[in-house]
Amino acid sequence: VQLQASGGGLVQAGGSLRLSCAASGSIFGINVMGWYRQTPGKQRELVASVTRDGRTNYADSVKGRFTISRDNAKNTLYLQMDSLKPEDTAVYYCKYVRYTGTNYWGQGTQVTVSS
Description:
The protein is an all-beta fold. It is about 0% helix and about 55% strand.
């Protein structure tokens, strides 16, 4: 599976962005899809995830502001980010997990929120 993340950019606090993660190759057996973020000097952290049967999970810091979704026909995962805060500034990565435990990562997209 190859993942191509896009949609990052510079936005003012309170604004919105939508990230996309387009998958190519065989997505057979992909059980979980998610978005992570990382800032310099910190570990990559889970932002949101969705399982194959549609169960979602969000980090407490983004609950009520971010929404994860997917378009199965387009093999694309999305992250709608609203009410952005400066502390949301990070490089965002998408990840797919196959039932075998194999992880596939996208290349990352920079999100910068100015105050």
